[in-house]
Amino acid sequence: MGARGPKKTSDATKRLRGTNRKDRDDQSLKLKRGIPTRPKWIVHEVAVIEWDRVVEILANDNVLTLGDQGILALYCQAYADWIEAKEVIEDEGITTETDKGNVIQHPAVGACNKAWERCLKAAKELGLTPASRSRVDREPDAEEDGFAAFIRNK
Questions:
Q1: Where is there biased composition of kind Basic and acidic residues (predicted)?
Q2: Where would you tag: which of 25, 86, 108, 143 has the fewest CB atoms within 10 A of its CB?
Q3: Backbone φ/ψ region at 68: left (φ over 0), alpha (ψ -120 to 50), beta
Q4: CA-CA-CA-CA torsion sign (30, 32, 35, 40)
């Protein structure tokens, strides 16, 4: 279910507009920008490649914080699980036959669907989907002027 009401205006946009009030705004948690280290338990080759790809994207857009390690790790592992289940389905098909001769959905289909749901939920949290990207509170680059940041966040 979607969020109710109008989209929240980011603190960065309020500061640029001059409508930021210290007594009401800037109550959000400010985490230190930086690149989190990849957890040791992410060992699947696909998950490692996806970690590197997404970290580069988010770091270049200046939205990655050290607190994003967990959700980023969950996203990468879900992505790797989805790829693995897709490969099983491509090799064995979407149906299988039981010992009694009944044709049923292959168990990898359910695993694939669940992995995709987990992957999509984590991607939304990271701002990796078009709809969620507009809600990301991106800090402007140091060399970027205030007007350019205002236009981008509008």
A1: 8-29
A2: 143
A3: alpha
A4: negative
- Per-residue pLDDT tens digits for 77-101: 999 999 999 999 999 999 999 999 9
H/E segment holding residue 79? helix 69-92
CB atoms within 10 A of CB 66: 12
Q: Does some domain include residue 145?
A: no
Range of the domain at 66: 33-134
- Judge whether 63 lies within some domain: yes
**Considering the domain boundaries, does residue 27 fall inside one?**
no
The pTM of this model reads: 0.71
Query: How many other CB atoms are there within 10 angstroms of residue 56's CB atom?
Result: 12
Secondary structure element (H or E) that encloses residue 76, with its range: helix 69-92
127 vs 132: CA distance, rounded Å: 5
Which of 82, 144, 147, 148 lies closest to 113 in space, CA to CA? Answer: 82
Decide if 82 contacts 61 (C-beta within 8 A). Answer: no
Q: Any idea what DSSP says for residue 6?
A: S
